[in-house]
Amino acid sequence: MNDPQAPLDPLDAFAALLTPEGRALLEEVHGTDPADELAVATRLRREHPAALVSAALGQTRLRQRAVAKFGAEDARRMFFTPNGVEQSTRASVAAYRAGRFRALGIGRVADLCCGIGGDAIALARAGIRVLAVDRDPLTAAVARANAEALGLDGLIEVREADVTDVDVSPYDAVFVDPARRGGRGRIFDPEAYSPPLSWAVGTALKAPRAALKIAPGIPHEAVPAQAEAEWISDGGDVKEAVLWFGTEPGAVRATLLPGPRTLRGRGLPDPAVRPVGRYLYEPDGAVIRAHLVAEVAEDVDGGLIDPTIAYVTADALRPTPYATAYEITDRLPFSVKKLKALLREREVGTLTVKKRGSAVEPEELRRKVLPKPHGRNTATVFLTRVAGAPAMLLGHPAV
Asked: Which pTM was predicted?
């Protein structure tokens, strides 16, 4: 750093953070409140190059964002890029997937498009040797630093290369996580992934086993016949879909974390539509994405409230991990005036608004029906369709 005030190339800035001075500075700025950054930066620039101070504070912000995905302990030791934080797999999901690889007897995995190394870390912690490949120099450098920071560099080899040039034949399995974001944001066309889904599938078919991480919104008709398709949610949020090769071709499953709990498709026809009963079941998002609502309906002896809506209704309460049950107290056609009067009568002060098949914005409705919340009771209202007609279902979580 000849000119301490000159901005650094991103790769040089990252290399500077790995020096003794950079590491000491990272420790010093750990936990800095964003509101205090300017004052901290001003003080530190009296003793350190301005570019290094900026890099350390930027890395601190990224580590703070990464806590939600990696946990506080790992996030403090790891290194990140803005895209790396955004696109990395949540650690709990990566650990689950690594466990599946381990259960399949996999000892060596080629992790293509490894990013900052989140999946490679989970695989290594499962006792699997990993070749982690990324073509971006900075991303590969961050992945290598993360393997070293977590003491996993003996199991993870990081290679800066184009994944299409990698020979995967020496490996027991391949894992591919194509980039699904571009300069204009999220990419929805699988053939616009980098690399394209067709290339990833072709590579998977050459390996004894493989897993391809894809967007959960992938159309079912785009799933190759040779693949098992698994949709994964964590804490109720759908995180990803995975195409598994070398397992059960044509199988469909929804896996819910923590747990894990896995619902397997049984090839059931669409459930029948029936009148709203005492209970309403809201299937987990992974169940809906996997098209396994029929399996939930069969398990709770229920039916659909509408042929196009993924709400299941039943007369009896049969708890299931794959759906949240609500006891319905009132059924009425959509009417803001009627709902407002009913909430006043029930002394509802806290209202949860859920919708499926309705164009109404929950926050807007809440403001209209509870302009000055003060009731002592709570309630949940579902804005939906019942047998094709707009409707409101009022209730509360079933005990």
From this structure: 0.91
